[in-house]
Amino acid sequence: MTPTANRSATVNSAGKTVLITGGTGSFGKTMAKHLLDQGYEQVRIFSRDEWKQEEMRVRMAEPRLRFYIGDVRSRASVDSAMEGVDLVFHAAALKQVPSCEFFPMEAVATNIEGSNNVIESAIAARAECVVCLGTDKAVYPINAMGMTKALMEKVAQSAARRLDPGETRICSVRYGNVMYSRGSVIPLFINQIREGGPLTVTEAAMTRFMLPLRDSVRLVEFAFQNARQGDVFIKKAAACTIGDLIAALQKLFGTNVEVQSIGLRHGEKLHETLASLAEVHRAEDMGDFLRIPMDDRDLNYAKFFSEGEQVSQQLTDYDSESTEQLNVSEVCELLLSLPEVREQLDSWKSLTNVSSTTRDC
């Protein structure tokens, strides 16, 4: 791994138009607000759900925010939203692991074919940069969601290989569990606590990266500012066991509800990996981030037999078991940094007259 300074390029947002696919999700809403605060001229939200778009339109009441109904599976609908766009943040995806296990071809249609539509549309429209949002489940994938997101990365790099300097930059990012995002286990656990339990845990020893939503925005912005063709960017993150996450929530809410083990769900891993050993070997350490360059060798098979890279035996995968592990108090502090958790705690305190000391970590 090569260390470099943690740097960010200067970005001029004036006059820039940004497209966010899947823009009504947790990331899209947070990113849209951030971009508007940064002074971008127009932020376009592209998604299938007109009701979520209407809620977002009313809540944000921002004339620079534009909404496009469409599906990444339809190249025509993507093209209609892409005209005049400078930057693309591609967040549209099927992300629920069990659902993708039962409907893998739907995951293929959205996560692979849909991503290809977005990338090709951006290239045709001469967009400056496309950042594809990935997942730790794409490394050593064992489920359909991870496999299709891994192939999304390959599609992005395939497009990047054929582009010349000065053309659209294509890159990807990977991150783990985004805390309190849609589908996160944290709001589920909080609801179960408020209802008196039981807390349903798949496996208490399971580890997951813990990434606040604000850090996922930082990662995507950093990728846009620093990307070369085909790069994959990772935000370094600490992890914790699900058992410690539950203990931290119980401590914050001042409860001791029953915890019920239900076993692993379809396609779940005990630990997640953000970068394989081979990728760690190639990675550039950029402070809070890792840049994994694409393998840019051409399709000359002789090279794969006569050229290679030695990997240090001291390196390991960058995974949720070997990264920095948060203890219960540290998980408490991280949870309290989330406005959604603080709001839930305030509501809980008003309902139960629980002392504010339950917030102490």
TrEMBL record:
Its EC number is 5.1.3.2. CDD domains: UDP_invert_4-6DH_SDR_e. One of its GO terms (biological process) is lipopolysaccharide biosynthetic process. One of its GO terms (molecular function) is UDP-glucose 4-epimerase activity. It comes from the Bacteria. It catalyses: UDP-alpha-D-glucose = UDP-alpha-D-galactose. Residues 15-56 form the Rhodanese domain. Pfam families: Polysacc_syn_2C, Polysacc_synt_2. Keywords: Isomerase, Lipopolysaccharide biosynthesis. Belongs to the polysaccharide synthase family. This is UDP-glucose 4-epimerase. It comes from Novipirellula herctigrandis. The lineage of its organism: Bacteria, Pseudomonadati, Planctomycetota, Planctomycetia, Pirellulales.
